[in-house]
TrEMBL record:
Active site: E197
Species for this entry: Kushneria pakistanensis
Tree of life domain: Bacteria
Protein name: Adenine deaminase
Family the UniProt entry places it in: Belongs to the metallo-dependent hydrolases superfamily. Adenosine and AMP deaminases family. Adenine deaminase type 2 subfamily.
Residues binding substrate: D276
Name of the gene: add
Residue intervals of the Adenosine deaminase domain: 9-324
InterPro entries: A_deaminase_dom, ADE, Ado/ade_deaminase, Metal_Hydrolase
Lineage: Bacteria, Pseudomonadati, Pseudomonadota, Gammaproteobacteria, Oceanospirillales
Reaction(s) the record says it catalyses: adenine + H2O + H(+) = hypoxanthine + NH4(+)
Gene3D superfamilies reported in the protein's UniProt record: Metal-dependent hydrolases
Cofactor(s) required, per the database record: Zn(2+)
């Protein structure tokens, strides 16, 4: 089954490029940029990846990305992931990036777009891979800062397929970012948000009603609200579920306890994704294989999940036809 899952053409819609930073590259970039790391070895980094919840992961995630400074660094980070994903049989990637932690360390906005843009072009040339770019705002920082990031990105709006909302969910409801997302809507930029990962089902409804998002990242807690489940099913709102991430962050104790089978029973538009593969036990193929082992899904089930992702992706209609 693993071989078959590798050959299945997969689109990844929920991937934080900073969450693809493997410890080996972290050490290489730390040396290149003269950044001190709080770890003595690669093994020590891996041993620290022992999370109790979303915040315990975010603390390490923001610390890890502190080694990224130059255009070359962002290029190397993205290119290393595109190569691994290509080996997993991924044919389309929608990479999200978080400008705020980088801008706070003095990295220029153009450095981010240039490095990631160059890697995207190279992935298309070398692997025939299509990509889309999602610029995410940190929901645990202020609305004003998010608005400022959106304005600073003006020279690169053409490169942005959507804006997103991530980081610490609890206590940071979608409504906080109503004005920022309204501005994005006015600019003609599509909108997404993490919701219902650790936060309640009400955050999913809020993201749909107030932020006017076209997809929900995670959304696994939707099952707690029957009316919301019916709405998600009726409107076929795509949910970018990240199975291994949810287990690593203790949203579910074991994959067998995940709400994924219930979500499919309700007729929801589910897609499978890796979220932060360097931190959560691997990329797309590992997520697909883990679901096969936990739920016993057959080829038809995976074909349908892969189709959902291609249908929900930001890609040209000709590319979509090619992949369907
Ligand atoms: N940023 C990176 N990964 C995240 C996740 N799983 N949830 C929220 N914010 C994130
Ligand atoms: Zn995420």
């Amino acid at each position: 089954m693993k071989d078959w899952l590798q050959t299945l053409p997969k689109a990844e819609l929920h991937l934080h490029i900073e969450g693809t930073l493997e410890p080996e590259l972290m050490f290489e970039l730390a040396a290149r940029n003269d950044v001190a790391l709080p770890y003595a070895s690669i093994e020590e980094v891996r041993a620290a990846y022992n999370f109790t919840n979303l915040q315990s992961f975010l603390d390490l995630y923001y610390q890890g990305m502190n080694v990224l400074y130059t255009e070359q660094d962002f290029y190397d980070l993205a290119m290393a992931y595109f190569e691994r994903a290509h080996q997993d049989g991924v044919v389309h990637i929608e990479l999200s990036f978080d400008p705020q932690p980088h801008l706070s360390r003095g990295v220029a906005m153009r450095t981010l777009f240039a490095g990631l843009g160059q890697a995207r072009e190279e992935a298309e040339r070398r692997f025939g891979m299509s990509t889309a770019l999602i610029m995410s705002f940190l929901r645990d920082r202020s609305t004003e800062e998010a608005m400022d990031v959106l304005e600073q990105a003006a020279p690169w709006y053409e490169q942005i397929d959507a804006v997103g909302l991530d980081s610490a969910e609890l206590g940071n409801p979608p409504e906080k970012f109503a004005a920022v997302f309204e501005r994005a809507r006015t600019l003609g930029i599509a909108r997404l948000a993490h919701a219902g990962e650790e936060g309640p089902a009400a955050y999913i409804s809020g993201a749909l009603d107030v932020l006017d998002v076209c997809r929900i990242d995670h959304g696994v807690r939707c099952v707690e609200d029957e009316a919301l489940v019916a709405r998600l099913a009726n409107e076929q709102i795509p949910l970018t579920v990240c199975p291994l991430s949810n287990v690593y962050l203790k949203v579910f104790e074991r994959l067998e306890d995940h709400t994924l089978p219930a979500m499919l029973d309700h007729g929801l538009c589910v897609t499978l994704n890796s979220d932060d593969p360097a931190y959560f036990g691997g990329g797309m193929l590992n997520n697909f294989v883990a679901c096969h082992e936990a739920f016993g899904w057959d080829e038809d089930a995976f074909r349908s999940l892969a189709r959902n992702a291609i249908e929900a992706a930001f890609m040209s209609e000709s590319r979509r036809e090619q992949l369907l």
